[in-house]
Amino acid sequence: MPFGRFSGRYLIDLPEPYVVWFNKNGYPKGELGEMLQLTYEIKLNGLEKVIRKIPLN
Predict the structure, then answer these.
(1) Please, are residues 51 and 10 in contact by the beta-carbon 8 Å criterion?
(2) Is 2 helix (H, G, I), strand (E, B) or coil?
(3) Considering the entire predicted model, what is its pTM?
(4) Of the residues 33, 42, 47, 55, which has the maximum number of CB atoms within 10 A of its CB?
């Protein structure tokens, strides 16, 4: 996350209520907004474990 109180965190590590807030109030424009929408869908469908198994390298 590039800004705010969760700056520096991976989007998948954002608290669910924070991601839900963006879904209700609007996402930022551009790539960040698209990635936050995807993060919302991942969390909504309980797929975080799948994402965490992907190597970071």
Answers:
(1) no
(2) coil
(3) 0.86
(4) 42
